[in-house]
Amino acid sequence: MKKNDEYQALGHQIETTEKAIGVLEEQELEVMYAIDVAKKKFAAAEAELKANISGHEARIKTLKERADNLAAEVKAAQAEVVTARGPVGEPKLRVYDRIASRQQPVIVPIVHTDKCGGCHLKISGDVVSVARGKFDPIAALPTCDQCGRIVYWE
Ligand SMILES: [Zn+2]
User: Distance from the CA of 119 to the center of ligand 1, in angstroms?
Assistant: First the structure.
């Protein structure tokens, strides 16, 4: 009789334990599903970020190419400047460099017969005459009375 009671108690314990295992297995499935969802979200986010990175890398490459091209243009322009300065006398280069250090453009046309193309103020008749070649243009460099830019007759 006592053996039978013990047997029943064990059977009850087995049943309770099996139920607990069932609950745990269900929880395990839920966790596995959550991991799966998280993995999919991660993959999508990773793909988007990779696309962004390649976009940025392509832009960096384009900008680097542009920087290289511009550096080459600057080098070519500097060489042209050296070539252009060659035949110009030192006094005229000094005048040019002095003006260039404070305003651009340095050399401007005379507009409306007696106005500086840079500051638009009136230029004296002497300067206009020099610009028109009535005096020795080699000796005298015509400059605006107001802003000091070199002027020329068009
Ligand atoms: Zn001027």
Answer: 4
Burial 91-103 (b: 16+ CB within 10 A, else e): eeeeebeebeeee
Cα(108) to ligand 1 centroid in Å equals 8
Residue 148 CA to ligand 1 center (angstroms) comes to 6
Measured distance CA(102)–CA(91) in Å, rounded: 18
Distance 50 CA to ligand 1 centre (A): 57
Ligand 1 geometric centre to CA of 151 (Å): 8
Q: Check if the beta carbon of residue 43 is closer than 8 Å to that of residue 50.
A: no
- Flag whether the pTM goes above 0.85: no
Each residue's pLDDT, cut to its tens digit, for the chain (154 residues) gives 578 888 999 999 999 999 999 999 999 999 999 999 999 999 999 999 999 999 999 999 999 999 999 999 999 999 999 999 999 888 889 989 999 999 999 999 999 999 999 999 999 999 999 898 876 655 678 999 999 999 999 8
Instruction: Write down how long the chain is.
Output: 154
Distance CA 77, CA 83 (A): 10
Give the neighbor-by-neighbor strand order of the sheet with 115-116: 115-116, 107-111, 150-152
